[in-house]
Each structure stands twice: as structure tokens, then as C-alpha cells.
């Protein structure tokens, strides 16, 4: 299936979910993630903050659990340069004051920059993915530009409200394949 078609279908499906369903699926994803991965060696973990208007996976459950169980992990979030279509990265301190950017994505007001090469694990937002680890996001390519800047041993984990969908047929050379995807039902490993 073409990315544009899959993107459109998944956005429609997400919009139909009531907020209680998003919350339940998000918590199940968080539990799957925390039960599956050995986070002891992780020192720096990058994750996205959800856009509630897009019915994205709510990562706040994971953040709370990381702070409680792994306080030594530095949590990092993307800072979006909309004009330049790039991401920079800043620490999400426990007392961080957040403000929405022009797309409604929360970002820290005061930023302590973090370099890509320090990231041990990156949690990637997904609209959809297939059994080969190809992903569909919003189509702007932010993560396809960001992920190659990480170390080769950085672990990439997609978070998805749905299980793997049909094979994505229009994969391009610049598309970054995931190593793992976590859904409410299971964890997929691709490589």
C-alpha cells in the first residue's frame, strides 16, 4: 500500500478513537515497552511528546515510569525547526516548563541541548508500520533526517496504536527502517 493512502486511512481511524481508548492503548504500549526492554544500560532516551489533537500515543505514562524506575536516564525530546524542517534535541527536566510550538507540540521553554550521538534509544511516533519495519509518519521526513545522525548502535523503537499493517510499497532510499515497534498487543523486532 502507498504511504499517502495508509497515512490518510490511519489518521481517519485515529480521529474516531475516544480519548479513553487512546489512554488505554497508550498505557498498554507503555507497559509492553517497559516489560520488554532492558533499560539498565540506557543513559539517554529520546521520545516524543504527544499531540493530543492528533490522538497520538500518550508518552507521559512512559515518562512517569522512567522517572520512578530509572531516574538515572536522561529523557530527551525533539525541538522542531518548522522552517528548516529539522529536529534539535533538548533535555526534558522533571521541572521543565513546557510551551506548544506552532504545530501544538509541547517543547521545553528553556533548552539544554543534547547531541544525537549521545542517544542510546529513540522512541519514534508512527501512524503505521509494516512487518518489515518500514514506517509511515506525517510525511515531513523529520525522523528520516534525524535518525541517521544517531550512533549505529542507537536502538529505534516505534510506538503505534495499531499492529503492523499492509506492506508499504513506496519505500525510498532515505526511509529509515525501525528496529522495533511496540503496540498495545505486542513488540515487533525487525533486525
N-to-C order of helices and strands: HHEHEEEEEEEHEEE
Mean pLDDT: 94
Question: What is the class in the CATH system?
Answer: Alpha Beta
CATH architecture: 3-Layer(aba) Sandwich
Q: Over all CA atoms, what is the radius of gyration?
A: 16 Å
Task: Write out key terms for the chains shown.
191 residues; alpha/beta; Rossmann fold; 7-stranded mixed β-sheet; two-stranded antiparallel ribbon; 4 helices; 11 strands; globular; ATP binding
Please give a structural write-up:
Helices cover 25% and strands 23% of the residues. The protein has 191 residues and is an alpha/beta fold. The protein has one domain: Rossmann fold (3-Layer(aba) Sandwich). The mean pLDDT is 94. It catalyses: (6S)-5-formyl-5,6,7,8-tetrahydrofolate + ATP = (6R)-5,10-methenyltetrahydrofolate + ADP + phosphate. It is an enzyme of class 6 (ligase). It holds the Pfam family 5-FTHF_cyc-lig.
Amino acid at each position: 500500500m502507498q504511504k499517502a493512502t495508509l497515512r490518510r486511512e490511519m489518521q481517519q481511524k485515529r480521529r474516531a478513537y475516544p480519548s479513553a481508548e487512546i489512554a488505554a492503548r497508550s498505557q498498554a504500549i507503555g507497559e509492553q515497552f517497559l516489560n520488554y526492554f532492558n533499560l539498565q544500560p540506557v543513559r539517554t532516551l529520546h521520545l516524543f511528546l504527544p499531540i493530543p489533537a492528533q490522538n497520538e500515543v500518550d508518552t507521559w505514562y512512559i515518562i512517569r515510569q522512567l522517572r520512578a524506575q530509572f531516574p538515572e536516564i536522561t529523557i530527551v525530546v525533539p525541538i522542531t525547526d518548522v522552517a528548516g524542517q529539522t529536529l534539535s534535541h533538548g533535555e526534558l527536566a522533571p521541572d521543565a516548563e513546557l510551551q506548544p510550538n506552532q504545530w501544538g507540540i509541547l517543547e521545553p521553554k528553556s533548552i539544554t541541548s543534547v547531541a544525537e550521538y549521545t542517544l542510546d534509544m529513540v522512541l519514534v511516533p508512527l501512524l503505521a508500520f509494516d512487518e518489515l519495519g518500514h514506517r509511515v509518519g506525517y510525511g515531513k521526513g523529520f525522523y528520516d533526517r534525524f535518525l541517521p545522525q544517531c550512533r549505529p548502535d542507537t536502538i529505534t523503537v516505534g510506538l503505534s496504536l495499531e499492529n503492523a499493517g499492509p506492506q508499504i510499497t513506496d519505500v525510498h532510499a532515505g526511509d529509515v527502517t525501525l528496529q522495533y515497534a511496540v503496540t498495545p498487543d505486542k513488540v515487533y523486532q525487525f533486525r
